[in-house]
Amino acid sequence: MKKRDTIIVILLGIVTIAVILMGFRYRQSKQEELVNKSNYVEINQSESFEARQKKKEEEKRAKFLAAFDKKRESKTIADFLQYVKYAKGDTNVAFYGEIPDKAQWAIDNMSQLATERAFTEMQTNFVSTLESETIGERVDELVETKPDVVFFHTPMPVQGIVSWDEYGEPIEKDNITEVLSAYDEMKKSFARSTYCFGNTSTSRS
After folding, report:
1. What number of other Cβ atoms are within 10 A of residue 127's Cβ?
2. In sequence order, what are the beta bridge partners of 122?
3. Three-point CA angle 136, 137, 138, nearest 5°
4. Strand pairing partners for 66?
5. Residues of the chain with pLDDT under 50
6. Backbone angles phi, psi at 111, to 5 degrees
7. In the prediction, which pLDDT does 101 show?
8. 185 neighbors 139 (Cβ within 8 angstroms)
9. pLDDT for the residue numbered 17
10. Cβ distance 142 to 127 under 8 Å?
11. Do residues 162 and 173 make contact, with C-beta atoms less than 8 angstroms apart?
């Protein structure tokens, strides 16, 4: 009888240990399943958020482009640069003419505009003609910068007598002809260029 009781106790002990081990493994398996499920849900939520953000941005982009095309003539240069950003992903402006290279006021204004309009990629170029004989002398360099908008800085339009020489003869100057000639050359050069964005604007000042 004692021997039989001993065997029963041993068997019960083995069964108990087996049950404990099975329970431990089951719990471990469930924990891993819950962790994997949680990670899957987090990934899905992240992907869903990114998808919603992308869709929202695309809707905003489409709405802006459609509205811009309807009232194109009344839009500002800033609006046009926004249009360019939505259309091709970046913006590129150039300051041309009688303006110092890397003029601080121009850089500050472009930085402010980039901040206000969230232009993550905005390039600013300077092509100064202050050391040139005419303001149309460096148009080819301007075209090479591939600008979307050109801020054209011209000399003050002056027609008539500006001073007298040592003999008392009048010195006449006509900047307007030179300004218009440079402007026309810019338009022709951009039209010939394959690099220029479709609707390059030129601001005359």
Report:
1. 22
2. 91
3. 100
4. none
5. 194-205
6. -65, -40
7. 92
8. yes
9. 62
10. yes
11. yes
Alpha-carbon distance of 21 to 41, in angstroms, equals: 30
Helix (H, G, I), strand (E, B) or coil at 177: helix
> In the prediction, which pLDDT does 141 show?
92
Instruction: In whole angstroms, give the CA distance from residue 24 to residue 13.
Output: 16
d(CA 41, CA 66): 37
Q: What is the pLDDT of residue 68?
A: 73
Length of the chain, please? 205
Token duo for residue 17: 């240990």
Return the residue matching tokens 């206000």.
Answer: 116
Strands 170-174 and 159-164: antiparallel
Q: What share of the chain is helix, strand, coil (3-state, %, to 5)?
A: 60, 15, 25
SS3 readout for 123-167: EEEEEECCCCCCCCCCHHHHHHCCCCEEEEECCCCCEEEEEECCC
| CA dist 135 → 40, 42, 121, 129, 138 (Å) | 63, 60, 29, 6, 7
Q: Is 204 helix (H, G, I), strand (E, B) or coil?
A: strand
Give, for 96, the enclosing helix (H) or strand (E): strand 91-97
In this structure, how many other beta carbons lie within 10 angstroms of the beta carbon of residue 97?
Answer: 26
Q: Work out the angle at residue 98's Cα, subtended by the Cα atoms of residues 93 and 103, and round it to the nearest 5 degrees.
A: 55
Q: Rounded CA gap, 90 and 82, in Å?
A: 9
